[in-house]
Fold this sequence. Notes:
The protein is 57% helix and 5% strand. It has 290 residues and is mainly alpha-helical. The chain is flat, with a radius of gyration of 32 Å.
Amino acid sequence: MAILQRAEQMQQSSRVPREIEVPASTAWPLVLAVGFALVFAGLLTSASVSILGAVLAVAGCVGWFREVFPHEHEEAVHVVPEEVAIRTVRREVERFPIAPDQVRAWLPVETYPISAGVKGGLAGSVAMAVLACLYGLLKAGSIWYPINLLAAVVYAPSEVPSISQLTSFHAGLFFIAAVLHLVTSMLVGLLYGAMLPMFARRPVLLGGLIAPVLWSGLLYSIMGILNPVLGSHIDWAWFIASQVAFGIVAGLVVIRQNRVTTRENLPFALRAGIEAPGTMPPRRDGDEQR
């Protein structure tokens, strides 16, 4: 018996290849990338840079294709077999009770209701409005400056009001700014309510710092294309500060609300049979005959 086991081990070890063939390393993709970079860099500097980039890009394409066609370039890599032994000092398997009463669970198990997102969005809108009005008083001496500036988003670049018009009250602009501010705040609040359960450790860090900075960077990058005149009137430091204030207040309000079970984790009877009930006991032979 021992001789038979030894023979089987030797047979299995002989089947393991000592060398395998893998695609050969090549620098042509890097040459192609540098070529494309120089092509676009030449649009801002000189035509000779674009010509050099085009030459490198063509050379990179040709060299890269020759690495694949008509035959793939490969190289042999020596394989060193290693025996992996998994050892543990624990006597039993530890299980994390995520949803002990459920056969299967969808993560997150609990989430915030829609009302939590709406409350967080409205609270954040108030904090953002207070900070924006404070900026208007300090920058232009009028609380209507940021309100009119927000309403000017709907205007064409050539129709943006002047500074004197932005610092005075206009009922139409106030209505437009109020609708835009409230709708956007509630939508972002709903987004926070859906995302914060996925970041259980530091939810305020996501809602109060990461998300506002990313959103402000996106607007800063596209505002010069959408409305350059309006972008020149925005103080981006105060804009980021108001976004951070919104995120912190909205995040704090959302996480203080009571969570509810997600729809997927409701009892099967409440899901009206939309999904399978999970694991089911196997049928016996007598049940099939019936």
